[in-house]
Amino acid sequence: MKILKTLTLRGPNYWSIRRHKLIVMRLDLEELAEKPSNEIPGFYEGIVQALPSLVEHFCSPGCRGGFLSRVQQGTYMGHIVEHVALELQTLAGMSVGFGRTRETSTPGTYQVVFEYLNEQAGRYAGRAAVRLCQSIVETGSYAESELEQDLQDLRELWADAALGPSTETLVKEAESRGIPWMPLSARFMIQLGYGVHSKRLQATMSDRTSILGVELACDKEGTKRILRDAGIPVPRGTVIQYLDELEDAILDVGGYPLVIKPLDGNHGRGITINVTNWEQAEAAYDAASNASKTRSVIVERYYEGSDHRVLVVNGKLVAVAERIPAHVIGDGKSTIAQLIEETNRDPNRGEGHDNVLTRIEVDRTSLQLLEAQGYTLDSIPPVGEMCKLRATANLSTGGIAIDRTDEIHPENIWLAERVVKIIGLDIAGIDIVTPDISRPLREVGGVIVEVNAAPGFRMHVRPSHGIPRNVAEPVMDMLFPPGSPSRIPILAVTGTNGKTTTTRLVAHIMKQTGQTVGYTTTDGTYIGNYLVEAGDNTGPQSAELILKDPTVEIAVLETARGGILRSGLAFDRCDIGVVLNVAADHLGLGDIDTIEQMAQVKSVLAEAVSPQGYAILNADDPLVSQMAKRVKSQIAYFSMTPDNPIVQRHTQQGGLAAVYENGYLSILKGDWTLRIEQATKVPMTMEGRAPFQIANALAACLATFAHGMKIEDIRAALKTFIASVQQTPGRMNLFNLGDYHALIDYAHNPHSYEALGGFVRNWPGERIGIIGGPGDRRDEDFVTLGKLSAQMFDRIIIKEDDDTRGRPRGDAAQWIALGIEEVNPAMKYETILEETQAVNQALDLAPKGSLVVILPESVSRAIELIEARKPIPSNLSSP
Ligand code: ATP
Ligand code: ATP
Ligand code: MG
Ligand code: MG
Do 337 and 353 meet the contact criterion of CB atoms below 8 Å apart? Predict the structure, then answer.
């Protein structure tokens, strides 16, 4: 077996609209192509032994053991690889279940599709699955150690990719509300929502978190001073820089017991609690000074009580946790070392912040603390005796948390909410030391030790005891108050031909609202009237640029087949999805070999329209109108004739449509006809002579009308939309050369030649064509070009590209000539292989009133040749 190619899909795609995260592996079965599993001796036994849990895969039989019975009866290796890739991920803690396997048009080569949670892990699982199956085919087994290594690697990839526990809680809450999110490329920032409505988070700091608030909270001494000035109980203390200030400081704060800690510390580093004599004070001073960047040390009174964390979001208290430092409780039999080991065996304890709890590590502080309590690691404490192993209650040093949200006294709630306002934070964690949180601090002598910006959510979301609190909910309510939008309208356009033109027109119509429109096309990415980036930007990356941009209010996205196949759509759903047409082009690429398959690719966009939105479908194209069966949204049809039966049926039932009727572009709303404009007054239709442009305009008008645009605005936009050389080079660029006209168009498949023919045949004077195409097309494509040309031109010059792409010079021209003669043996044509020469000769000899149509290899060179002849503004369309 050989993996030929691996794709990572991230949005609605050809295989599934709902499942976005899929790996698509193109797999050549090679020697196994002709060998179903039942014909491989020992394969069934080998796979059951390696992965017994495959028994849980139902597969097509729909029952437990279903998949394994398929293996026993005989199925192809691609299908088995799919199930193994899913199972490996599941065994490594990433539960996935969706998969599909299809043979491609190349016999023995399969597309194996399976779900992933993490991209890297998904790709890895694919490779490992092939390795595993190959090994069982060859040796009858897969070494247990190999499998263990694969699972270990997969677990590591999963862990490396995991978001922090707080971010994860926030992202989950966003997902449950349908708020889209994406990671940004720097500083671990997450973007929530699209465009102008987007918000940012970094752990539990939001883009509304005040920098002044954060800086004040990080300055413990400053915080205390500001709080004390406001009459809030804080520890009595002072800051010193040198050891010789220590004695005075101790007197200053009222003597022992003391706490000595670094001014700029965190995570409890360098803190000594309950200092009761000079010897301890000196040692504590050294520890604190060494842990401080500025060598500044806080000397504070020690307050009795336990540690509480109070979380305040958007001015309201949302959770309270009591935190208890790492400890063990005696059972009268085990030593302290054994008790620690026992505690660490809890599967909830992991390294760092990744798990619910963190493992306890014995260090110098723990030994000192034990000594102060009269123990060593080998002591056996009596039943029920609590032995502290840490002075501070940080979860990251092995502490535990107990939810106390329902116990806090109302006066303390009032105090906490006031504290956070005074410091100036939208999300803050207040550290309170008090013997009893259910009584006012004032009464029991509790103090506020610190205010934390970016407080961790772990202890509230997954406390060791008590009720878990969804603290992400108030954060999301703050960022996106109920009823406020997180998304911007997305109008997307696909089809074989006319995408760029239609996308530009939709963008132009939407600009009438005065809002900032971001749009992507084959020419580039634009925001408002400015080009952001030139290039063929019809894939998900360009779309993402628009959706991420905080200035964009409306997104209009040309969506080409390439991007849909390569990685799926960039958005989970859109408001308007336009499908213009499906014609033969790009067949044979990306395992899309038939026009029906191509229709299914383009149908992804229609199916991704949200139920409240509209799929805009071409009623004149059966492959497009059939998509109606699969869409979940509302539907509106466009057609070049009001007689189209689909349109008629649809409007009789009160549906929405757009048609070309009596020379007008009109919207049909049930029984009513709303005329937008006469085609002859719409510049892009070239006085109504370019039918395909009328079709594109109908699609754009319908899309924007369905989205809520007013007819007047659509009309105004149609009249000012011009397919100029600057805006759309190579797309129906018409030049007035005084006595005659020239047209440059980059029609590049039979469907677009035909469309062009619709315009050319409407030209009142003589029609001259300069035709040819890239050499890598099939012979029959050149014949078709010849045939279609013979039907639209009076005279033809056949030319070839400078780059014949491997074809002998003159060969393509002969195929074209064949096509011409087949349709019209009397046709006047000549062959001038060199393009510039062909163009110049045609222009030199063009009769009065004629139209010279150029299908150039290089659009810019053809434009130069024409501009050299000083064209005058055209009354049809002004280039
Ligand atoms: P973290 O990063 O966890 O917030 P930190 O290094 O910033 O820790 P503090 O918050 O100042 O340090 O103190 C850590 C813990 O030490 C407090 O939560 C409290 O339990 C205890 N503590 C600090 N100062 C005092 C004090 N004056 N009296 C009693 N306990 C104190
Ligand atoms: P690409 O795949 O190159 O991005 P596109 O779908 O964006 O193409 P346009 O750039 O708008 O299409 O138009 C390209 C050419 O296709 C036009 O110059 C014209 O010849 C032809 N064309 C445009 N609209 C249609 C249509 N509705 N039906 C058939 N052909 C069309
Ligand atoms: Mg603290
Ligand atoms: Mg395009």
Answer: no
Q: What is the pTM of this model?
A: 0.90
Cα first-last separation, the chain: 56
335, burial (CB in 10 Å: exposed 0-12, middle 13-18, buried 19+): middle
Long-range pairs of 3-6 with CB within 8 A, sequence gap ≥ 24: 3/27, 3/28, 3/126, 3/127, 3/130, 4/28, 4/109, 6/123, 6/126
Which H helix or E strand runs over 851? strand 851-854
CB burial class (10 A; 0-12, 13-18, 19+) of residue 61? middle
Cα–Cα distance for residue pair 750/768, rounded to 1 Å: 18
Of ligand 1's listed atoms, the one at least distance from the Cα of 305 is: 29
Q: CA-CA distance, 620 to 272, in Å (whole number)?
A: 80
Q: What was the pLDDT predicted at 879?
A: 36
Task: Give the burial string for 396-411 (b: 16+ CB within 10 Å, else e).
Answer: ebbbbbbbbbeebbee
Ligand 2 contacts (CB < 6 A) are: 495, 497-501, 522, 580-581, 692, 695-696, 731-732, 745-747, 751-752, 755-756
The answer to whether the beta carbons of residues 27 and 3 sit under 8 Å apart is yes
209: nearest Cα among 429, 416, 415: 429
| Structure confidence by residue, pLDDT tens digits, 497-513 | 999 999 999 999 999 99
Q: ipTM of the assembly?
A: 0.90
Cβ contact 491:703 at 8 Å = yes
Residue 497 CA: which ligand is closest? 2
**Ligand index nearest the alpha carbon of residue 264:** 1
Average predicted confidence (pLDDT) for the chain = 93
631-683: per-residue pLDDT in tens? 999 999 999 999 999 999 999 999 999 999 999 999 999 999 999 999 999 99
User: What is the CB < 6 Å shell around ligand 1?
Assistant: 235, 259, 261, 265-269, 271, 273, 300-303, 307, 392-394, 431, 433, 449-450, 452
Of the candidates 468, 557, 668, which has an alpha carbon nearest to the alpha carbon of residue 195? 557
Q: Ligand 3 mean position to 401 CA, how many Å?
A: 14
Mean pLDDT of 553-577: 97
- Work out the percent of the chain whose per-residue pLDDT is above 90: 82
Q: Is the pLDDT of residue 426 over 80?
A: yes
Ligand 2 centre and the CA of 718: distance in Å?
18
d(CA 479, CA 481): 6
Residue at token pair 């080009």: 531
Ligand 2 centre to CA of 733 (Å) is 13
Residue 741 corresponds to which tokens in the numbers above? 């006209």
394, 430, 433: residue to mutate for ligand 1 pocket, most atoms within 8 A of CB: 433
Q: Nearest ligand to the C-alpha of residue 394? A: 1
pLDDT for 354 = 64
